[in-house]
Amino acid sequence: MAEDVAKIIAAVRAEGDAAVEHFESQFGSGARPPFAPGPGSLPDDVRAGLEVAIRNVGAVATSGLDRDREVKFPEGQSIKLREVPVRRAAVYAPGGRNPYPSTVVMGVVTAQAAGVDEVYVVGAPHPVMVGAAELCGADGYFAVTGAQAVAALAYGTDSIPRVDVIVGPGSLWVQEAKRQVSGVVGIDGFAGPSDLTVIATDGADMEALRADLAGQAEHGEGSLTVAVSDDQTILDALDAQHGVFVESMDDALAFVEVLAPEHLQLAGEAAEALAPRIRSAGCLFVGSESGTAFGDYVVGSNHVLPTEGAARFASGLNVRHFRRRMAEVRVGSAAASLAAAGVPIAEAEAFEAHAASMRLRQNSRP
Ligand SMILES: N[C@H](CO)Cc1c[nH]c[nH+]1
After folding, report:
1. Is 100 near ligand 1, meaning CB less than 6 Å away?
2. 242-245, strands of its sheet edge to edge
3. Which Pfam families match (predicted)?
4. Residue 260 above 90 pLDDT?
């Protein structure tokens, strides 16, 4: 598959819209340049729900913004650490088996909270997804899908703007394409099939947990559900794809730290005590009311999360995926003392021109 994806990317890079149209007719929705989707349409109750999602996801995303910082040295130099948004971002929203207006919200609202100037959506031209993008105030929607969509966004075509960051879940083709263009553009990471692990202890609401597990299994192919408990009767009743019996909660924690699930629910009397001990989950849901489905849609946390164990090192989608940090440097009156320190290092590296550039400022006055 990696080779096929590489061929698609190379073709789109070389031929632009014509190649996108070709692959779209072969594997996608068949849209033609300029890849405009049909009109958006949102039933009133869906619109109202999405408005709640937009408000809550926006509030959480905004709270993740880092502020600029400045370090001033007594020698005279100052370094400002500036947090700056990228100019353009795109959200890939899957719409093959089911339309995902919720993913449109997760991506667009987070990019907007990050301060991105232009935010685009790509995906199947489903009216509810287009309507969600309009409701969020996205700057455009392109009815392109698959690896060709990712390639078009990475390199730009006549119809599709080149962006700085591409985020969002998608098929293995989409994820492989994102991996291959990363470096040319920023990406959020690998967002594969959904998984849910529950740690259920005494007092867990079994009916609710069964519903939660069935919910994530509903994503179909590749989705993974795991129940962990120190009580075999709980495991039998939950009927997850995998039931993992543990002797103790320490063993349960050790297990989930290695698995690093996308979603981890803690249910039952031990839930609150366990919560602070969890480190490696994409998103942690604590207590009987906290079903993963709330996180999929409206509670405010993001549902674009690291899967397949990536929660060991990666974060769920957040404003940092759309921002970069840039140091702003003023050497000022520190030139002399810094040159005294820097010149010998440059000379040790045999970089005489580097040394000269510092040395000649040794006597300057700001
Ligand atoms: N559970 C998915 C990934 O965490 C997100 C989603 C969208 N729609 C329903 N669920």
Report:
1. yes
2. 242-245, 224-229, 195-200, 263-267, 283-286
3. Histidinol_dh
4. yes
